[in-house]
From TrEMBL:
The keyword Nuclease does not apply. It comes from Candidatus Glomeribacter gigasporarum BEG34. Residues 1-45 form the SpoVT-AbrB domain. Keywords: DNA-binding. This is Putative transcriptional regulator. GO terms for molecular function: DNA binding. NCBIfam families: lp_hng_hel_AbrB. The lineage of its organism: Bacteria, Pseudomonadati, Pseudomonadota, Betaproteobacteria, Burkholderiales.
Length: 87
């Protein structure tokens, strides 16, 4: 599929691609350049992917992401207190 860059560097994403990926006006996209290749990433899907990765990490232990992050922060604070004589 070919597209042409217009005024002000604008590129129109073909309707078939927008429909396939459920993209609409206002969808936040991230532009990534790798080895002279331009990639567009749907930031909503990227965020969902990160959240899913955290959820997978917690699967099986019955805990919540919030509880795990709080526990992680408490452990870090305890380590910092040991290394900080003023703390």
């Amino acid at each position: 599929m070919n597209v042409v860059m217009g005024k002000a560097g604008r590129v129109v994403i073909p309707v078939s691609v927008r429909e396939q990926l459920a993209l609409s006006e206002g969808t936040p996209l991230e532009v990534v350049v790798r080895d002279s290749i331009i990639e567009l990433h749907d930031r909503r899907r990227k965020i969902d992917s990160i959240l899913n990765a955290f959820s997978e990490r917690l699967k099986g232990d019955g805990g919540s992401l919030v509880d795990a992050l709080i526990e992680e922060r408490r452990a870090e604070a305890a380590r910092e207190a040991v290394h900080d004589p003023a703390g």
